[in-house]
Structures are given as structure tokens and as C-alpha cells.
Specification:
With 175 residues, the protein is α/β, with parallel strands linked by helices. It has a single domain (2-150), classed as NAD(P)-binding Rossmann-like Domain (Rossmann fold, 3-Layer(aba) Sandwich). It contains six helices and five strands, in the order E-H-E-H-E-H-H-E-H-E-H. The protein has helices spanning 10-20, 41-48, 62-67, 69-90, 122-137, 157-168, and strands at residues 2-6, 25-29, 52-55, 93-99, 141-146. Strands 2-1-3-4-5 form a five-stranded parallel beta sheet, sandwiched between helices. The longest helix is centred in the middle third of the chain and has 22 residues, at 69-90.
């Protein structure tokens, strides 16, 4: 099996570590050499012909997406669309990592995959547009909606809470 991991941030790095220990071939594409927002990505994926593509590249700065919605859309919607087009041409499956923020708020139960979405922020709209784009381009895909990721390194929620507590002494957090 050949797995293409797109992105080498917190998630991409963790996936690389996991797959390196498995008997599979892995390829990692990351910036600055690889730019997911370019249409040529579809050709590059089709030429590589992996079995699975995991899109770990994302615009994750929620506040930054409000000031640059076009940038967030390019990374979170157009890039995945190009990946999906390449996957469709070579028969690869695609894993698209989205966000729980495509939903409006707590329904009083766990969300299900077919629940109504209501993306209210530029970030959430860009991720939802990515979901729609990959679903339109590809049949074999997996959309994974996650909240905050955490692990070794990276700008994750536990790291931000610890840094804030160290700096301020006490924090108020809304759950």
C-alpha cells in the first residue's frame, strides 16, 4: 500500500510517525515545495498514483480566516478539491480532515454525519466547502470531523491553556 500524506504540521507529522512504523510506502508532500492550492496538484496526485491520500494540510487559524477568508478557502476547499480530482483519476481513496465547527452548536446529543450543517465562521465555511468539493469529485472518500487536535508539539489547545495559565496565573475557559 502507498499512502500519500499531504501536510507536515501537527497531524501530518504524527501520521508520518505512525505510518513509518508500518509495512507501507509513504510519501509526504508539504510546503514550501508542495502547494495544495495549485490546480496542478490533481496531475501530481494522478501521476504518483497512491492508494490512499490523507489531507493533513489545512488553514487552522480560525481568527486568521476571518481576516483572510480567501486564503482559508484556497487551502481548505480548493486544495482538497484538486486532491480529490487527482484521486478520482488514479483510483485513490481520500481522507479529508474537517471540523466539528461545521455544526451550529450542541444538539443535546452527539452529531451524526447527516445532521444539518450551519457553518457560521469563515473557517467553518471553508472547511464545509472542502467537504462539498471532495464529495462532488470523488466516491471513495472519508470525511473526518474533528475538534482541537493535540499531541507532541504544535499550537494545540492543551499547550495554549498551559501557556496562558503560566502567563496569567488563572484562566476562565468556556466549555
Amino acid at each position: 500500500m502507498h499512502v500519500l500524506i499531504v501536510g507536515d504540521g501537527q497531524l501530518g507529522s504524527a501520521l508520518k510517525q505512525v505510518y513509518t512504523a508500518k509495512p507501507v510506502q509513504i510519501t509526504v508532500w508539504a510546503q514550501p515545495v508542495f502547494d495544495i492550492t495549485q490546480p496542478a496538484v490533481a496531475d501530481q496526485v494522478a501521476d504518483l498514483a497512491p492508494d490512499v491520500v490523507i489531507n493533513a494540510a489545512a488553514w487552522t487559524n480560525v481568527d486568521g480566516a476571518e481576516s483572510n477568508p480567501d486564503g482559508a478557502y484556497a487551502v481548505n476547499a480548493l486544495g482538497p478539491k484538486y486532491l480529490a480530482e487527482g484521486c478520482a483519476r488514479c483510483g485513490a481513496a481520500l481522507v479529508y480532515v474537517s471540523t466539528n465547527e461545521v455544526f451550529a452548536g450542541a444538539p443535546g446529543r452527539s452529531y451524526r454525519e447527516y445532521d444539518q450543517t450551519s457553518a457560521s465562521s469563515a473557517y467553518a465555511r471553508s472547511k464545509l466547502a472542502g467537504e462539498v468539493a471532495v464529495a462532488a469529485a470523488l466516491r471513495e472518500l472519508y470525511i473526518v470531523r474533528v475538534s482541537w487536535l493535540f499531541g507532541a508539539g504544535g499550537a494545540n489547545f492543551p499547550a495554549k491553556i498551559i501557556a496562558g495559565a503560566d502567563r496569567l496565573g488563572a484562566l476562565r475557559v468556556v466549555a
